[in-house]
Amino acid sequence: MKRSITTSCLLAVLWTAACSGPSKGTPQNTFVGGEGRETETEVANRSLMKSLQMVNVRSKRENDRLFVQFELENKRSINLAFEWSVDWFDEAGFEIDFDESWKPATIGGGGQETLSIVGPTPQASMWKLALRTPNTIR
């Protein structure tokens, strides 16, 4: 019973983090996953979600680090520009502090891009990927 209470608390922390997003401004779609967990999706930018989908999520622990790989698939027939960022969390749901910024990316029409991310510390067991359309005002 203690395990299910811990899991419920963990899910509540991650859900709050996924809903709040890393920054204000451009609406983001977030994907939260971790070791032995199904990936959860929060959609704030429906247009981007129709155009860009995450598929084939895989993860493994190697050399004490969590490695995650997934494909982003462009559903449009034209190039799609977007930005992505990832946050990491420990088993208790606490965010792991590390310097991570938004990265620009473009996928050709109908194409796929494989992204690989690696936990910044051995304690990293969950991740939150955020996707948004490029912010042209800097």
Topology:
Blueprint: H1 2-20, E1 28-34, E2 40-42, H2 46-51, E3 52-62, E4 65-74, E5 80-89, E6 95-96, E7 103-107, E8 112-118, E9 126-132
Task: Give an account of the 3D structure.
The protein is of the alpha+beta class. The protein has one domain (2-132): Sandwich (Immunoglobulin-like). Helix content is 18%, strand content 45%. Strands 1, 2, 5, 6, 7 and 9 form a six-stranded antiparallel β-sheet that branches. A three-stranded antiparallel β-sheet has the order 3-4-8. Strand 5 (80-89) and strand 6 (95-96) form a beta hairpin. The N and C termini lie far apart (49 Å). The model is unreliable at 1-23 (pLDDT under 50).
Helix content: 10-25%
- The overall number of domains is 1
What integer is the average pLDDT? 83
Radius of gyration: 15 Å
Main sheet, how many strands, which sense, barrel?
6 strands, antiparallel
β content, as a range? 35-45%
Query: How many separate helices?
Result: 2
Distance between the termini: 49 Å
Q: Using DSSP, what is the number of strands? A: 9
Overall, the morphology is globular
Low-pLDDT sequence parts: 1-23
CATH topology: Immunoglobulin-like
Identify the CATH architecture.
Sandwich
H and E string: HEEHEEEEEEE
Give the class-level CATH name. Mainly Beta
- Based on secondary structure, the structural category is alpha+beta
